[in-house]
Design goal:
Layout lengths: L1 H19 L4 H22 L24 H32 L15 H4 L1
Length: 122
Amino acid sequence: MTVLMALLVGVLYAAGTYLILRRSMVKVIFGLIFLGHAANLMIFTVGRLTKGVPAFVPEGAAAPPVPFADPLPQALILTAIVIGFGVQAFTIVLFKRTYQVLGTEDLDEMRSTDQLPPEVKS
């Protein structure tokens, strides 16, 4: 299971990096989404994958029974999901506004803000 998750994380990182390097804004957004999911899965995998064993400490014991899942990475992932969603929403709004102003989604055509149309400069 850990090897499968490691391969999945690698594929998501590769796909996210590939998409971020493309010229289309939509592909950049999907690349950010893939990178966020890959980071979350990596943190989840580091916290140990155990099937059907909660991280509860039985009454009278000093530690949970082995094997157990570490709950800290799971809490960090919940926070990362919220932050990632905020970044993705901001990126979508930023790219939408850029498209409205410049009229293109091709990142190579957006060379500088000095080349804005005359109606936007005022």
